[in-house]
Amino acid sequence: MELVMASSSTVDGGIGCWDLKTGTERLQYRSCASPPHGLICVGKRLLASSQVRESNSSGSIFYWSWNKPQVEVKSFPAESIKPLVSNRDGSYIIGGGSSGYIYLWEVAGGKLLKKWSGHYRAVTCLSFSDDESLLISGFEDGCVRVWSLFMIFDGLRREEANHLYVHSFHEHTLRVTDIVSFGSSNAIIASVSEDCTCKVWSLSEGTLIGNIVFSSKVYSLALDPSDHALYAGCMDGKIYIAALKAESSRGNNYQIHLTGSLTDHRSIKAVTCLALDAYGISLVSGSDDGMLRVWDTKTRNIIRVFKHPKGPVNNVLIVRLPLYLNGQMPSLRRHGSLLTPALEKYASSTEENAEVKALIAHQTTCNRPLDGLYHSSEVMNDQGKELQQQGSSVASDMELERLKLDCTRSMQMVQQWKKMYETLHQYCVNELLDGDLTGNSS
Fold this sequence. Notes:
About 15% of the residues lie in helices and about 35% in strands. It is α+β, with helices and mostly antiparallel strands.
């Protein structure tokens, strides 16, 4: 079962919920006023949303279980949190603050594991790489930064580094409004901005590899699962479609160009959010007119329309629930009375070095390759021990498995380098022998 979830920044706008296939309206969740990118699904177990509260500078994050319309858990971070992102299994949540700080919480215990200064301007959007080892953040002034979560948890590398980020891109001139990433061996990210551009970046090379200019501000972005098309929702009410194609098998250079658009001529309100289903067949758009439109990406026609009960829509999700949840929605209550805990406002006294200091300085695009992110088994074990000491067995297991995979990839790369060296060495030997034979024959 696939559900469409949508929220608004209107006070008490709530979260609307519909069945994507049948259009049936389901439970409506109350007391939600979310900022852009503030609504997420946490491991398919619960809904979470940061809150827009002008009179409350400390900010808040709410939890809802699937089967109850009321807020079940309220958290109050140290500052106003806008964008949120969660990893696939829902073991941790990352939030971006208005001050530019980034916060990483463990969901199971609510612990604030890490906090670091991402930039001197507000965080506007957050996204994970496909393997969830990298966090990509967009900021109010157009900056895009890429962070290695392995480095964030590695105290030794943090002390040695001049800055925590892997790459820092500054080509956008106005607020970054959305970011998507795709690919593994040749990972790339695409970012859109109020400067009317979509830029494509190579994470392996740290360079800009594609750019497209729109005729209107761009507020939202969605990526076809086949990685061949980008959908960009714009202020003029249109959804532009851009084709993305690698010019070579190495994927280090891309051609990007517009191929068409999706338009509802009855509305010219800004398209503020987009969500694409897992198969790339249905695209859901949310707009300032409060409408949600379901598009067939093949025919480019509207096949269904939903109306949010209150105000403009600024967040939309397509949530695919497991079959065992179709009949009975789970609750946040465990063992009869225990609730999923609220997120900590500050790191507890037992958390050592929870706040990560970063050197914030305007720098040119960083060209350091991602190969430098691979760690030894000693660092991997140290990170696992650190997470276990923080009482996070779920996060520990997850990070340990990722580091093991990263170490395996590193060893494979070393073997490739050895083969290249042996080939080059043999070539040089053959050249020398051929030269000697030629000299002797003459």
